[in-house]
Write the structure tokens for this entry.
Amino acid sequence: MQRNFQTALNEAQNHKELPFPIEEFQERLHRIRAAMEAHAIDLLFLTSPESIYYVSGFQGEWYQAQSGRPFPPSSGIAIHVAHDKTIHFETPSEAILTAIGTVSKDVRIFPLEHRRDGLPFILGELEAEGWLKGTVGLERYNYRQNPIIAGKYDNGFKSKGMKLTNASDMMNSVRHAKTSAEMTAMQEAAKIADIGMQAARDAISPGTTELEVYGSMIGAMTKAGGEVSGLIPPVVSGIRSNCLHALASRKEIARGERVVVDLSGVFKRYHVNIARTFWVGEPPENSRKLHDTSVQAFDIIQGLLRPNLPVFELLNAVKEHYAANDLLDDSYWSGGYELGIAFPPDWVGSFIYDPSFSNADDKFLPMTVANHECNFFGPNASGMSATIDTFFFHENSAEIATNFPRQLEGLCI
């Protein structure tokens, strides 16, 4: 990796592909450093794909999440509370991708003898900078790094005399409120979600497999500029539609069956989630009534939506509607979660709300995004009546992100 590699690395600087302007990343760094100061964190070492992307724009297809031991997840970005810069540590394998796709100016590539285990190199470089003093914040409520590697990094920073603290909640809080550029990206993701759902609807027919419907919607979203989502979006039919987290299969969709589609449109890694329920043929009256009554909750929510809406005002309003229509006993889940940057294996954000664990003072803050799930078991084991929509809470207004109809539609009649 010397001659041709170095030529490609030098040329990569002329082919930048940044998801946002440099000024956007500068504002994000400012927000992080302000949070670090508030939490008395001197050094922050970021290792989650979402945080690395948030700070630098780096995105890749491999984060060593479940790889063998020779490939530990060592890369990350260091931020010091007193310095207006980041230090981006990467393996030689990703040096060219880092040059193309990030705003990182100070990129330090592991030497070849440490290309897999970068910890000694990282500690040495940070010590030379004078950054290994005080408290280091690490993302410990995250799958990357895995427990074994996280323990090695903990011991490494401790050996330098540093105190450790979990910075996951701090970073999640920083990312919770979106910038205008992030909200614009999510509006594009919403358009892509509608396109994907329409493609799924058009592909559903007797004899078509769930995987074929899945492929049609993925193809349509990709053609519209959509990206791979953090979760594999399910397409489920018949008895399988009682299971909202099943993968699309080779099962052929039959007339008289329910079909549930749950997807996220993705633009610049920002997700907007919707789910819809269809019926192949004419839906039975009891299934149609349950479904159409349940989704009336979104009309109620529409009248409530506003920045700083108390979470329990929404939850109590929909609960009253469900109770008045004798739906509560069939409820699968009534709640939702934050959406934003996501990489596989998940798109569920850190802010989650429902009646069992939300706090009385929780609110939907301005410049945040969350979904709401309206899911009920249908009669006669016919499957789940599943409907999900995403809400945008702007500075002075709020709206439902997508436009796809919610009523139970009979297809191929």
Summary: The two ends are 61 Å apart (CA to CA). The first strand starts at residue 43 and ends at 46.
